[in-house]
Each structure stands twice: as C-alpha cells, then as structure tokens.
C-alpha cells in the first residue's frame, strides 16, 4: 500500500484435503515499513502489532476452513504479515480478502 488505511476485517479461506485445510497463523500489521525479519518475540513486536491468532484445527482435517479477523477501530495500517505455524505441510490458502473500513 502507498499509505496507511483503516481496515474493517480480513477473511481467509482454505479448502483442501487432509492437513492443508486447517488454518493456524498469526496476523500482524505495521504502520511503517519494517523489516520482515523483525523480532516478533520482542516486547514491541519489532515494530509489528499482533492483530490476532487463528486456529481452525477444531473443525477437523480437510474440507473448507474460513476465518475472519476484525481490526481495531480508529487504527490505520500499511502492511500486513501472516505467520503460519510450523506444521508438516502449511495451510493451502485459496483466498484472502482485505476489507477497508467504511
């Protein structure tokens, strides 16, 4: 993005067989350009703000999995970063929709 914008929500969809469908990730946002190798374990997140942690494994393996993360109001972000949890195979994301605030 060229500038920071307010976001309403981000929805992700995955549909696949076996362990490629469940979604296990954390969603981070930043207002300024920050290196991708920033220390996310640091107290300030290395400049990244943790928005949400998502885990749809309780829905079982295979099939369609969906998640929707609602963003805090009155905040603007320029960059988004998904960090997937380590698994044998990562989630096969089929669609990611980003909705700006109205």
Could you please describe the fold and organization of this structure?
The strands form two sheets. Strands 1, 4, 5 and 7 form a four-stranded antiparallel beta sheet that branches. The protein has a three-stranded antiparallel beta sheet with strand order 3-2-6, with no helix packed on it. The chain contains no helices and seven strands. It is globular, with a radius of gyration of 14 Å. The protein starts with a strand and ends with a strand. With 102 residues, the protein is mainly beta.
Number of domains: 1
SSE order, one letter for each helix or strand: EEEEEEE
Query: Averaging pLDDT over every residue, what do you get?
Result: 86
* Broad shape: globular
Uncertain spans, ≥5 residues at pLDDT below 50?
Answer: none
The amount of beta strand, in percent, is over 45%
Structural class: mainly beta
How would a textbook summarize the main sheet? Answer: 4 strands, antiparallel
* Helix content class: under 10%
Number of helices: 0
List keywords for this structure.
102 residues, mainly beta, four-stranded antiparallel β-sheet, three-stranded antiparallel β-sheet, 7 strands, globular
């Amino acid at each position: 993005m060229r500038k920071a914008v307010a976001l309403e929500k981000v929805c992700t969809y995955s549909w696949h067989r076996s362990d490629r469908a469940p979604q296990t990730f954390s969603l981070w946002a930043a207002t300024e350009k920050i290196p991708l190798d920033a220390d996310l374990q640091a107290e300030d997140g290395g400049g990244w703000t943790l928005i949400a942690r998502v885990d749809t494994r309780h829905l079982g393996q295979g099939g369609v999995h969906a998640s929707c993360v609602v963003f805090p109001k009155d905040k603007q972000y320029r960059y988004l970063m998904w960090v997937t949890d380590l698994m044998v195979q990562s989630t096969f994301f089929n669609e990611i929709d980003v909705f700006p605030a109205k």
